[in-house]
Write a structure and sequence with these properties.
Elements lengths: L1 E4 L3 E4 L2 H19 L3 H18 L1 E2 L10 E3 L6 H7 L9
Parallel strand pairs: 1-4
Antiparallel strand pairs: 1-2, 2-3
């Protein structure tokens, strides 16, 4: 799975981590829908950490279509209300 973090770059995430990222995304949607900003912030950080620690960063000249585009790292809870709704960033 190719994941782009807006403003940072692309990462090739191992298939084994794709399911975990989807689980975190679903939990983040639930936290936003519940208005739980603290829980969302925790889950958002886990998503970013998973991508950057387990993913292989692609070179700038390596052009690959992203499967998932995550919002910028500095997204606010207000931003999340638009991005983390319905099926979330990763449709089931």
């Amino acid at each position: 799975m190719i994941v782009r973090i807006a403003g940072e770059g692309q990462f090739e995430l191992p298939d084994a981590d794709a399911e975990r990222l989807n689980e975190l995304d679903n939990q983040a949607v639930a936290a936003v829908e519940a208005g739980n900003e603290e829980k969302f912030a925790e889950l958002w950080q886990q998503m970013l950490d998973l991508v950057t620690s387990d993913g292989r960063e692609l070179a700038d000249d390596e052009l690959v279509e992203s499967d998932v585009i995550l919002p910028p790292r500095d997204s606010t809870f207000e931003d999340a209300k638009a991005d983390f709704s319905g099926e979330g960033l990763i449709p089931d």
